[in-house]
Amino acid sequence: MKVDGKPYRSLWLADDGRTVCVIDQRWLPHEFRVVDLHTLEDAAVAIRDMWIRGAPLIGATAAYGMALQMAADPSDAALDRAWAILHETRPTAINLRWALDEMRSVLRPVAPADRADAAYARAAEICDEDVEINRRIGENGLGLIEAIAAGKPGRRVNILTHCNAGWLATVDWGTATAPIYMAREKGIDVHVYVDETRPRNQGAHLTAWEMAGHGVPHTLIVDNAGGHLMQHGEVDMVIVGTDRTTARGDVCNKIGTYLKALAAHDNGVPFYVALPSPTIDWTVDDGVKEIPIEERSGDEVGWVWGRTASGEITRVRIAPEETELGNPAFDVTPARLVTGLITERGVCAATPEGLKGLFPERNSI
Ligand code: MRU
Which domains does the chain have, with CATH numbers? Predict the structure, then answer.
Protein backbone atom coordinates (compact mmCIF):
# COMPACT_ATOMS: atom_id res chain seq x y z
CA MET A 1 0.00 0.00 0.00
CA LYS A 2 1.08 3.62 -0.14
CA VAL A 3 2.50 6.12 2.34
CA ASP A 4 2.42 9.67 1.01
CA GLY A 5 2.00 8.23 -2.49
CA LYS A 6 5.03 5.92 -2.20
CA PRO A 7 4.38 2.14 -2.35
CA TYR A 8 5.46 0.22 0.74
CA ARG A 9 5.27 -3.22 2.17
CA SER A 10 5.36 -3.50 5.95
CA LEU A 11 8.71 -5.36 5.76
CA TRP A 12 11.48 -5.35 3.14
CA LEU A 13 15.19 -5.95 2.72
CA ALA A 14 17.80 -3.17 2.65
CA ASP A 15 20.11 -2.81 -0.35
CA ASP A 16 22.65 -5.14 1.28
CA GLY A 17 20.13 -7.98 0.82
CA ARG A 18 20.53 -9.01 4.47
CA THR A 19 19.27 -6.24 6.78
CA VAL A 20 15.53 -6.43 7.43
CA CYS A 21 13.63 -3.12 7.44
CA VAL A 22 10.28 -2.74 9.21
CA ILE A 23 7.96 0.12 10.02
CA ASP A 24 8.14 0.81 13.75
CA GLN A 25 4.41 0.85 14.40
CA ARG A 26 4.71 2.21 17.93
CA TRP A 27 5.05 5.73 16.58
CA LEU A 28 2.11 5.75 14.20
CA PRO A 29 0.05 7.72 13.37
CA HIS A 30 2.24 10.58 14.54
CA GLU A 31 5.58 9.60 13.02
CA PHE A 32 6.57 7.23 10.23
CA ARG A 33 9.77 5.56 11.41
CA VAL A 34 11.64 2.67 9.83
CA VAL A 35 13.95 0.46 11.89
CA ASP A 36 16.64 -1.96 10.73
CA LEU A 37 16.82 -5.47 12.17
CA HIS A 38 20.36 -6.88 12.06
CA THR A 39 20.17 -9.89 14.34
CA LEU A 40 17.89 -12.63 15.57
CA GLU A 41 17.64 -10.75 18.85
CA ASP A 42 16.53 -7.57 17.03
CA ALA A 43 13.75 -9.54 15.35
CA ALA A 44 12.68 -11.10 18.66
CA VAL A 45 12.50 -7.70 20.37
CA ALA A 46 10.58 -6.19 17.44
CA ILE A 47 7.95 -8.91 17.75
CA ARG A 48 7.79 -9.12 21.55
CA ASP A 49 7.68 -5.36 22.15
CA MET A 50 5.27 -4.83 19.24
CA TRP A 51 7.38 -2.63 16.98
CA ILE A 52 5.61 -4.84 14.49
CA ARG A 53 2.45 -6.81 15.22
CA GLY A 54 -0.45 -8.60 13.50
CA ALA A 55 -0.40 -12.35 13.04
CA PRO A 56 0.84 -12.56 9.40
CA LEU A 57 3.54 -9.92 9.89
CA ILE A 58 4.70 -11.62 13.09
CA GLY A 59 5.15 -14.80 11.03
CA ALA A 60 7.01 -13.01 8.23
CA THR A 61 9.31 -11.19 10.66
CA ALA A 62 10.04 -14.42 12.48
CA ALA A 63 10.97 -16.07 9.16
CA TYR A 64 13.49 -13.29 8.55
CA GLY A 65 14.65 -13.60 12.16
CA MET A 66 15.63 -17.18 11.33
CA ALA A 67 17.39 -15.94 8.20
CA LEU A 68 19.35 -13.33 10.19
CA GLN A 69 20.50 -16.08 12.53
CA MET A 70 21.50 -18.37 9.66
CA ALA A 71 23.66 -15.57 8.25
CA ALA A 72 25.42 -15.29 11.64
CA ASP A 73 25.57 -18.98 12.56
CA PRO A 74 24.08 -21.68 10.31
CA SER A 75 24.63 -24.60 12.70
CA ASP A 76 21.88 -27.02 13.76
CA ALA A 77 22.13 -25.72 17.33
CA ALA A 78 21.66 -22.12 16.14
CA LEU A 79 18.67 -23.14 14.06
CA ASP A 80 16.95 -24.71 17.06
CA ARG A 81 17.91 -21.81 19.29
CA ALA A 82 16.46 -19.28 16.84
CA TRP A 83 13.21 -21.28 16.66
CA ALA A 84 12.94 -21.31 20.47
CA ILE A 85 13.79 -17.63 21.01
CA LEU A 86 11.34 -16.43 18.39
CA HIS A 87 8.63 -18.87 19.40
CA GLU A 88 8.33 -17.46 22.91
CA THR A 89 7.87 -13.84 21.78
CA ARG A 90 4.07 -13.87 21.26
CA PRO A 91 2.10 -16.99 22.25
CA THR A 92 -1.28 -16.53 20.59
CA ALA A 93 -0.74 -15.77 16.87
CA ILE A 94 -0.32 -19.19 15.26
CA ASN A 95 1.35 -17.73 12.16
CA LEU A 96 4.48 -17.44 14.32
CA ARG A 97 4.74 -21.18 14.89
CA TRP A 98 3.66 -21.88 11.31
CA ALA A 99 6.47 -19.72 9.89
CA LEU A 100 9.08 -21.07 12.30
CA ASP A 101 8.17 -24.69 11.56
CA GLU A 102 8.18 -23.95 7.85
CA MET A 103 11.64 -22.36 8.00
CA ARG A 104 13.12 -25.12 10.14
CA SER A 105 11.77 -27.90 7.94
CA VAL A 106 13.15 -26.20 4.83
CA LEU A 107 16.55 -25.46 6.40
CA ARG A 108 17.26 -28.66 8.29
CA PRO A 109 18.14 -30.75 5.18
CA VAL A 110 20.26 -27.93 3.69
CA ALA A 111 24.03 -27.95 4.24
CA PRO A 112 24.99 -25.27 6.81
CA ALA A 113 27.08 -23.37 4.24
CA ASP A 114 23.96 -22.87 2.10
CA ARG A 115 21.47 -22.20 4.88
CA ALA A 116 21.60 -18.40 4.90
CA ASP A 117 20.72 -18.13 1.20
CA ALA A 118 18.02 -20.79 1.56
CA ALA A 119 16.58 -18.99 4.59
CA TYR A 120 16.40 -15.61 2.87
CA ALA A 121 14.81 -17.24 -0.18
CA ARG A 122 12.09 -19.01 1.84
CA ALA A 123 11.40 -15.91 3.97
CA ALA A 124 10.93 -13.88 0.78
CA GLU A 125 8.52 -16.50 -0.53
CA ILE A 126 6.53 -16.44 2.71
CA CYS A 127 6.16 -12.67 2.27
CA ASP A 128 5.10 -12.96 -1.36
CA GLU A 129 2.65 -15.74 -0.47
CA ASP A 130 1.12 -13.54 2.22
CA VAL A 131 0.57 -10.73 -0.27
CA GLU A 132 -1.12 -13.10 -2.71
CA ILE A 133 -3.26 -14.68 0.03
CA ASN A 134 -4.51 -11.27 1.10
CA ARG A 135 -5.21 -10.21 -2.47
CA ARG A 136 -7.38 -13.29 -2.89
CA ILE A 137 -9.11 -12.70 0.46
CA GLY A 138 -9.88 -9.26 -0.93
CA GLU A 139 -11.42 -10.69 -4.08
CA ASN A 140 -13.48 -13.21 -2.13
CA GLY A 141 -14.67 -10.66 0.43
CA LEU A 142 -15.51 -8.16 -2.29
CA GLY A 143 -18.43 -10.36 -3.38
CA LEU A 144 -19.96 -10.07 0.10
CA ILE A 145 -19.71 -6.28 0.06
CA GLU A 146 -21.13 -6.13 -3.46
CA ALA A 147 -24.13 -8.19 -2.37
CA ILE A 148 -24.84 -5.82 0.53
CA ALA A 149 -24.40 -2.79 -1.73
CA ALA A 150 -26.86 -4.27 -4.23
CA GLY A 151 -29.46 -4.53 -1.47
CA LYS A 152 -29.27 -0.84 -0.54
CA PRO A 153 -28.83 1.14 -3.74
CA GLY A 154 -27.74 4.74 -3.33
CA ARG A 155 -26.73 4.24 0.31
CA ARG A 156 -23.30 3.56 1.74
CA VAL A 157 -22.18 0.18 3.04
CA ASN A 158 -21.08 0.46 6.68
CA ILE A 159 -18.42 -2.01 7.80
CA LEU A 160 -17.21 -2.27 11.37
CA THR A 161 -13.71 -3.57 12.10
CA HIS A 162 -11.75 -4.20 15.27
CA CYS A 163 -8.04 -3.82 16.01
CA ASN A 164 -5.77 -3.57 12.97
CA ALA A 165 -6.08 -6.34 10.40
CA GLY A 166 -4.82 -3.98 7.73
CA TRP A 167 -1.69 -3.89 5.62
CA LEU A 168 0.45 -3.03 8.65
CA ALA A 169 -0.59 -6.36 10.22
CA THR A 170 0.35 -8.32 7.12
CA VAL A 171 3.00 -7.86 4.43
CA ASP A 172 0.55 -5.96 2.21
CA TRP A 173 -3.19 -5.39 1.63
CA GLY A 174 -4.31 -6.59 5.07
CA THR A 175 -6.83 -9.35 5.62
CA ALA A 176 -9.99 -7.59 6.83
CA THR A 177 -9.13 -4.47 4.83
CA ALA A 178 -8.36 -6.08 1.45
CA PRO A 179 -12.09 -6.45 0.53
CA ILE A 180 -12.66 -2.85 1.63
CA TYR A 181 -9.89 -1.48 -0.60
CA MET A 182 -11.17 -3.53 -3.52
CA ALA A 183 -14.76 -2.40 -2.97
CA ARG A 184 -13.59 1.19 -2.98
CA GLU A 185 -11.59 0.64 -6.18
CA LYS A 186 -14.79 -0.70 -7.77
CA GLY A 187 -16.61 2.50 -6.85
CA ILE A 188 -18.74 1.04 -4.04
CA ASP A 189 -19.64 3.61 -1.40
CA VAL A 190 -18.00 2.02 1.66
CA HIS A 191 -17.58 3.55 5.08
CA VAL A 192 -15.66 1.93 7.93
CA TYR A 193 -16.38 2.15 11.65
CA VAL A 194 -12.97 1.75 13.27
CA ASP A 195 -12.98 0.44 16.86
CA GLU A 196 -10.26 2.26 18.77
CA THR A 197 -9.25 -1.10 20.36
CA ARG A 198 -8.06 -0.49 23.87
CA PRO A 199 -5.63 -1.00 25.45
CA ARG A 200 -3.06 -0.36 22.70
CA ASN A 201 -5.45 1.43 20.36
CA GLN A 202 -4.41 -0.34 17.16
CA GLY A 203 -7.66 0.87 15.58
CA ALA A 204 -7.09 4.53 16.44
CA HIS A 205 -3.36 4.49 15.74
CA LEU A 206 -3.08 2.13 12.77
CA THR A 207 -6.37 1.29 11.04
CA ALA A 208 -7.51 4.91 11.04
CA TRP A 209 -4.09 5.93 9.64
CA GLU A 210 -4.34 3.32 6.91
CA MET A 211 -7.88 4.35 5.97
CA ALA A 212 -6.95 8.03 5.91
CA GLY A 213 -3.88 7.27 3.78
CA HIS A 214 -6.02 5.59 1.13
CA GLY A 215 -8.97 7.93 1.20
CA VAL A 216 -11.41 5.41 2.66
CA PRO A 217 -14.25 7.19 4.50
CA HIS A 218 -14.10 6.10 8.13
CA THR A 219 -15.21 7.04 11.62
CA LEU A 220 -13.26 6.22 14.76
CA ILE A 221 -15.50 4.98 17.57
CA VAL A 222 -14.87 3.86 21.13
CA ASP A 223 -14.94 0.12 21.61
CA ASN A 224 -18.25 0.30 23.45
CA ALA A 225 -20.14 2.05 20.61
CA GLY A 226 -20.49 -0.91 18.24
CA GLY A 227 -23.53 -2.50 19.92
CA HIS A 228 -25.43 0.78 19.91
CA LEU A 229 -24.66 1.39 16.22
CA MET A 230 -25.80 -2.12 15.34
CA GLN A 231 -29.10 -1.66 17.21
CA HIS A 232 -29.76 1.41 15.08
CA GLY A 233 -29.01 -0.21 11.72
CA GLU A 234 -25.74 1.65 11.27
CA VAL A 235 -23.60 -1.45 10.65
CA ASP A 236 -24.16 -3.65 7.59
CA MET A 237 -21.41 -6.12 8.31
CA VAL A 238 -18.44 -6.75 10.60
CA ILE A 239 -15.11 -7.91 9.19
CA VAL A 240 -12.30 -8.71 11.60
CA GLY A 241 -8.96 -10.49 11.35
CA THR A 242 -7.78 -13.41 13.44
CA ASP A 243 -4.65 -14.55 15.23
CA ARG A 244 -5.65 -18.20 15.31
CA THR A 245 -8.74 -20.01 14.08
CA THR A 246 -9.40 -23.58 15.11
CA ALA A 247 -10.30 -26.54 12.91
CA ARG A 248 -13.96 -26.14 13.91
CA GLY A 249 -14.00 -22.41 13.25
CA ASP A 250 -13.55 -20.80 16.68
CA VAL A 251 -11.87 -17.45 16.11
CA CYS A 252 -9.22 -16.01 18.39
CA ASN A 253 -8.61 -12.31 17.81
CA LYS A 254 -7.84 -9.08 19.66
CA ILE A 255 -9.60 -8.68 23.00
CA GLY A 256 -13.11 -7.32 22.48
CA THR A 257 -13.83 -9.19 19.27
CA TYR A 258 -16.11 -11.62 21.13
CA LEU A 259 -18.28 -8.79 22.44
CA LYS A 260 -18.66 -7.44 18.89
CA ALA A 261 -19.70 -10.89 17.69
CA LEU A 262 -22.33 -11.13 20.47
CA ALA A 263 -23.73 -7.73 19.56
CA ALA A 264 -23.74 -8.63 15.85
CA HIS A 265 -25.54 -11.90 16.59
CA ASP A 266 -28.18 -10.15 18.69
CA ASN A 267 -28.83 -7.63 15.92
CA GLY A 268 -28.68 -9.92 12.87
CA VAL A 269 -25.53 -8.22 11.55
CA PRO A 270 -23.29 -10.57 9.52
CA PHE A 271 -19.99 -11.19 11.28
CA TYR A 272 -17.16 -12.23 8.94
CA VAL A 273 -13.58 -13.19 9.71
CA ALA A 274 -10.81 -12.72 7.14
CA LEU A 275 -8.70 -15.83 7.51
CA PRO A 276 -5.41 -16.58 5.71
CA SER A 277 -4.74 -20.33 5.78
CA PRO A 278 -1.51 -20.06 7.85
CA THR A 279 -3.73 -18.69 10.65
CA ILE A 280 -5.69 -21.96 10.89
CA ASP A 281 -4.55 -24.18 13.75
CA TRP A 282 -5.65 -27.61 12.54
CA THR A 283 -4.46 -29.18 15.82
CA VAL A 284 -7.03 -27.35 17.96
CA ASP A 285 -10.85 -27.60 18.06
CA ASP A 286 -12.07 -25.81 21.16
CA GLY A 287 -10.54 -22.35 21.01
CA VAL A 288 -11.79 -21.22 24.42
CA LYS A 289 -10.17 -24.16 26.21
CA GLU A 290 -7.10 -24.74 24.07
CA ILE A 291 -5.70 -21.46 22.72
CA PRO A 292 -3.13 -19.78 25.00
CA ILE A 293 -4.16 -16.17 25.57
CA GLU A 294 -1.27 -13.73 25.85
CA GLU A 295 -1.36 -11.72 29.09
CA ARG A 296 0.49 -8.47 28.45
CA SER A 297 1.81 -5.85 30.83
CA GLY A 298 -0.74 -3.91 32.84
CA ASP A 299 1.12 -0.76 31.81
CA GLU A 300 -0.77 -0.96 28.49
CA VAL A 301 -4.01 -0.53 30.44
CA GLY A 302 -2.84 2.01 33.00
CA TRP A 303 -1.11 4.31 30.52
CA VAL A 304 -2.16 5.69 27.13
CA TRP A 305 0.20 6.87 24.39
CA GLY A 306 -0.51 9.96 22.34
CA ARG A 307 0.80 13.29 21.08
CA THR A 308 0.41 16.39 23.21
CA ALA A 309 -0.73 19.73 21.80
CA SER A 310 2.94 20.82 21.80
CA GLY A 311 3.87 17.84 19.58
CA GLU A 312 5.55 15.58 22.11
CA ILE A 313 4.77 11.86 21.77
CA THR A 314 4.39 10.58 25.30
CA ARG A 315 2.23 8.47 27.57
CA VAL A 316 -0.07 9.56 30.38
CA ARG A 317 -1.33 7.64 33.38
CA ILE A 318 -5.11 7.14 33.46
CA ALA A 319 -5.60 4.96 36.56
CA PRO A 320 -4.65 5.29 40.23
CA GLU A 321 -1.12 4.06 40.91
CA GLU A 322 -2.37 1.49 43.43
CA THR A 323 -4.99 -0.08 41.12
CA GLU A 324 -4.26 -3.60 39.93
CA LEU A 325 -4.18 -3.81 36.12
CA GLY A 326 -5.20 -6.85 34.04
CA ASN A 327 -4.47 -7.21 30.35
CA PRO A 328 -5.63 -10.34 28.49
CA ALA A 329 -4.72 -9.47 24.89
CA PHE A 330 -7.04 -11.80 22.94
CA ASP A 331 -10.37 -13.53 23.21
CA VAL A 332 -12.12 -16.36 21.42
CA THR A 333 -15.35 -15.98 19.47
CA PRO A 334 -17.15 -19.34 19.25
CA ALA A 335 -17.82 -20.54 15.71
CA ARG A 336 -21.61 -20.32 16.23
CA LEU A 337 -21.33 -16.51 16.25
CA VAL A 338 -19.34 -16.34 12.99
CA THR A 339 -21.33 -15.89 9.78
CA GLY A 340 -18.47 -16.91 7.52
CA LEU A 341 -14.72 -17.23 7.07
CA ILE A 342 -13.20 -15.33 4.14
CA THR A 343 -10.16 -17.31 3.03
CA GLU A 344 -7.89 -17.18 0.00
CA ARG A 345 -9.80 -20.16 -1.40
CA GLY A 346 -13.29 -18.75 -0.92
CA VAL A 347 -15.85 -18.03 1.79
CA CYS A 348 -16.97 -20.91 4.00
CA ALA A 349 -19.04 -21.62 7.08
CA ALA A 350 -17.19 -21.58 10.39
CA THR A 351 -17.53 -25.34 10.76
CA PRO A 352 -15.16 -28.31 10.40
CA GLU A 353 -16.96 -29.22 7.16
CA GLY A 354 -16.73 -25.68 5.84
CA LEU A 355 -12.99 -25.44 6.44
CA LYS A 356 -12.19 -28.92 5.19
CA GLY A 357 -14.34 -28.26 2.12
CA LEU A 358 -11.95 -25.47 1.15
CA PHE A 359 -8.83 -27.28 2.35
CA PRO A 360 -9.55 -30.93 1.37
CA GLU A 361 -5.88 -31.85 1.78
CA ARG A 362 -6.56 -31.56 5.54
CA ASN A 363 -9.12 -34.37 5.44
CA SER A 364 -6.41 -36.93 6.04
CA ILE A 365 -5.28 -35.27 9.29
O1 MRU B 1 -1.74 -7.70 19.39
P2 MRU B 1 -1.78 -7.50 17.90
O3 MRU B 1 -1.81 -6.06 17.50
O4 MRU B 1 -0.70 -8.29 17.20
O5 MRU B 1 -3.16 -8.14 17.47
C6 MRU B 1 -3.52 -8.15 16.10
C7 MRU B 1 -4.86 -8.66 15.85
O8 MRU B 1 -5.56 -9.10 16.74
C9 MRU B 1 -5.28 -8.73 14.43
O10 MRU B 1 -6.65 -8.52 14.32
C11 MRU B 1 -4.91 -10.11 13.90
O12 MRU B 1 -3.54 -10.38 14.10
C13 MRU B 1 -5.22 -10.26 12.48
S14 MRU B 1 -4.10 -9.34 11.49
C15 MRU B 1 -4.36 -9.67 9.87
Answer: 2-129 (1.20.120.420), 138-362 (3.40.50.10470)
